[in-house]
Design goal:
Elements: H1 3-15, H2 29-55, H3 65-71, H4 77-86
Helix pairs in contact: 2-4, 3-4
Length: 90
Amino acid sequence: MKLTDAADELASAVRGDHSSTTKWRDLERWQQVGIVGLAAAEIVTTTVALVDIVRRPRPQVRGPKVLWALGCAVQPFGPVAYLALGRRRG
C-alpha cells in the first residue's frame, strides 16, 4: 500500500465514508464462523469471570474485586488475566 493510499483511506474514515470497509456478506464463510466462534468464547469467558468475581469470597481474590470486574471490560485479556492470576487457590 502506498502512503497516498493510506492517507486516502484515513481521510475516508474521518469523513465517515465507510464504502471501503468490508461487509459481513463479503467475508468468506470460514471467516464468519471464526468471528462468531471467537465472539462466543469471549462472551463465555467474560461471563465465567464475572460470576466467579461475584461468588468468590473476598479473601480468595487477589486485589480489589471491583477492579477485577472493571478489568473484565478489557477484552480479551481482562477475563483471562482474572481467571489465571486473580483467584487464590484453595
